[in-house]
Design a protein that fits this description.
This protein has 305 residues and is an alpha+beta fold. The chain has 14 helices and nine strands. The relative contact order is 0.10.
Amino acid sequence: FELILVNDCSKDNTLEVIKNYSEDYVFIHVLDLTMNKGVANARNEGMGMAKGKYVTFIDADDFVHPDYFNSAMENHENFDLLVTGLDVGTLDDFEVHLPKPISAIDKSGLRDAYEMLSSNKQLMWGPYNKFYLKEVILKHGIFFEDYFGEDTIFVLEYFYYINSIKCIDYSGYFYIRDHTVKTISRGSDRAFKSLDKFLFTKVELLNKINEKFNMAPIDMEDFSDKHLLIYLARFFAVYSKKYKIERIHRKKLVKELRSEKWTELYAKSSFNRNYNLLKPLILKLPIGMADFFLVILFNQIYRTK
């Protein structure tokens, strides 16, 4: 295999370390980016450099077992998508998630695999623990876009185009849960502005997959209820003391959030009465007045940190 290490403008001695590795091992290649554009761009650049039949992704703070590639690829090289299990947790405590063994080359088997993987979000939604046929990626122009949830969208779009899948009840990928919080806080402003696009793109792709497998379309009321907290989380972030957003910028963000299509679904939702106090403020009152009351609510009731 080849290992492509993408240095996305690190500020420590990462570049020196990975260059030393590449000098010692011929299969290690360094891609040093001149401008920091985020994880989506880094993955796209890495894919563009890759020469292998399959590509897979490993986050910088995750790790894999020494036999991970061999165990995943051995005798499984005739499928559009290979899916393994993964261990999720901290360095001291991991929870193993294993897929049900499935080999599918027809629509019925693909549907079974899709339903099985979708029942475990750890297995389905991340770009890791999967091996993608580069030919499929190139043929359909699949790449990571620069917005919140881009990894899930990549997986769903790729899944729509596959004609075969192999799920292996083996786990050699160790996913460190701690880094999720760091990623969300680091990209909070990006998330404010792009989550509406993510949610509607996700619905669109899920419905395309459901249509392909002759499954019922998404129930938008049910879908919106399940994702409502994601929508509200941005309001919590806007008023969080952690980010210290200035009032002018805060009001602008609230105005942008109000303009999203997702707001219409929130208005119709009856999800969790604890958040109903927010509805008239988020949806109806003038921005200045709404901002005044939202500051009080988030400081006194929701206690945003």
